[in-house]
Amino acid sequence: MTFFENMQEAQKIFIELGKSFSIGFVPTMGALHAGHLSLVEKAKTENDKVVVSIFLNPTQFNNEEDLKKYPTHLEKDLGLLSEVGVDFVLLPSFENIYPENYGYRVHEDKNSKILCGKERPGHFDGVLTIVLKLLMISQAHRAYFGEKDYQQLKLIQGLCRAFFIPTEIIPCPIARDEKGLALSSRNQRLSPQGIESARKFAKLLAQSKPLNEIMQDLKNENIQVEYLQEEWHRRFGAVHVENVRLIDNVPI
Ligand code: PAF
């Protein structure tokens, strides 16, 4: 496994590599779990070389506390990536990947304003900007995104269409634990009791009931709801459990 801390150097290598090999790319913010590893496995089966980035992107956090509390365990992440046989890992610093200090940014005006975007102003500007940078650096033929962040996935597909980026965006199904909870790095901050509430959230969201009844069921379980909304033939929910923000969505 080869590491790059310098993105200019990495891009040069990937431009050459991409002429002879297909490159699959999985962007992450670290704190890896089985969901991330399933994206890597898929990338491995569909490409000659696999690149993973680990970068806790500060520009997509609108809340400093949330950024500070985001779980990190780089050594463990690198161990997992080497076990699954990743070829390259990008480990940029903020200064290296934002040489312009976030002076340039991608802004979307429609789909980024609803759901999570409404609650987290500026969040998707940060996501789209970092993803654009990472796609340019990795020269990926294919990039893999989980459907847990379905709104993010839609926006990234739109980004590639808008800017004629040739990377194929591959949506991947939500990885869930044995009781239906969507895997997320944020789950690592929950107590065993919090995990049980988060599982209830996943179960209640998936019921075939009107939204107002689901809202009531969540309230009855003392789960604090940020939003519950249907878009793109899916039902989306964001809740707070033990001060941890959790999102999920199900097809309807
Ligand atoms: O989904 C994530 O983990 C992040 O939003 C991403 C795509 C790695 C960009 O920082």
Task: Describe what this molecule looks like in 3D.
The protein has 252 residues and is of the alpha/beta class. It folds into two domains: 2-172, 3-Layer(aba) Sandwich (Rossmann fold), CATH 3.40.50; 185-251, 2-Layer Sandwich (Pantoate--beta-alanine Ligase, Chain: A,domain 2), CATH 3.30.1300. It is built from ten helices and nine strands. β5, α8 and β6 form a beta-alpha-beta unit. α7 (123-138) crosses α8. The chain is globular, with a radius of gyration of 18 Å. The mean pLDDT is 98. It binds pantoate.
**Average residue pLDDT:** 98
What is the 3D shape? globular
Q: Beta-strand level of the residues, as a percent range?
A: 15-25%
The CATH superfamily of the largest domain turns out to be HUPs
Query: Taking Cα atoms only, what radius of gyration do you get, to the nearest Å?
Result: 18 Å
**How many independent structural domains?**
2
Largest sheet: 6 strands, parallel
CATH architecture of the largest domain: 3-Layer(aba) Sandwich
Helix content range: 40-55%
Kindly state the number of beta strands. 9
The CATH class of the largest domain is identified as Alpha Beta
Q: Order of SSEs, N→C? A: EHEHEHHEHHHEHEHHEEE
Which small-molecule species are bound to the chains here?
pantoate
CATH topology-level fold name of the largest domain: Rossmann fold
Based on helices, strands and strand pairing, what is the structural class? alpha/beta
Helical segment tally? 10
